[in-house]
Amino acid sequence: MDKYKNTDLVEMSGLGNNKRNSQSGLTLIEALVATVIVGIGFVSVFQMVQYSVSSIGVSSDRSKANLLMTMVVEDFISEKNTIAEKAKRTNFKDKLFDDEHGFSSKPTFDITSCSKSGPNRTSPADNALDNKIHKWKHRFSQKRLKCTNVTGGTTNDKKTLNVFTLCNNSVVSKSNLSKKNRPCKFNNNKKYVGHLANSKAVGIYMERYFGRLEVGITTGKTKTVRGNKEPVSKKKVLYFQID
């Protein structure tokens, strides 16, 4: 029985030296700090993704606006001398000019509110001007280009086509004007000297028509106006010579 004495000294298998591991774990505070750091990283990445998506949307609208503006300019130039008003025998460009600078004092093509699909009609008009205006309003509707209304039902994403003339009112006979009783919108009496030696100063005597197309594009951002948040619009402007 001697071999069973002092059993407390027997080293049982698996127990060995029961020393504590020298490697310490994470405390609760350290775990919380790590969670906060990872969370901040995820929030930053999420904000970057949101900004990227918004930037892609704005860039797409700008590209579409460029294409639509080019379409309007090409339509205008191709129809500039087409009869737009049969009763007065007024052509396309003069009709738009007279509407803006005449009695109505308002551009013919002027979109001041958002439209989902553009104007409705049962049959086409019998003149090129009305058909073109109808086409342009459909093309610039929310089907193709984003638009946001503000308070009062209007929008900052306006689309406007202006027509004006540049000529010289000092010409006595007024033979340079398409309408003798209509003065130049912008009078230019300046004379220009050519780049060649001994060139004479020559003025601009022939009437020239120019167009200005302005298109507002929503940016997805907002600003505070008189206590109300309103969408921010960025304008694209295209000047072009009609003839």
Q: Give the fraction of residues assigned to helices.
A: 25-40%
Structural class: alpha+beta
Residue-averaged pLDDT, rounded?
Answer: 81
- Total of domains: 1
Largest sheet properties: 5 strands, mixed
Q: What distance lies between the first and last C-alpha atoms, to the nearest angstrom?
A: 126 Å
- Say how many strands there are: 9
> Unreliable stretches, pLDDT < 50, 5 or more residues?
9-14
Beta fraction: 15-25%
Q: Summarize the helix and strand pattern as letters.
A: HEEHEHEEEEEE
SS field, number of helical segments: 3
- The backbone outline, from C-alpha atoms, is elongated
- The whole-angstrom Rg is 37 Å
Would you kindly provide a written description of the structure presented here, covering whatever features stand out?
With 243 residues, the protein is an alpha+beta fold. It has one domain (65-241). The protein is built from three helices and nine strands. Strands 3, 4, 5, 8 and 9 form a five-stranded mixed beta sheet that branches. The longest helix has 51 residues, at 28-78. The model is unreliable at 9-14 (pLDDT under 50).
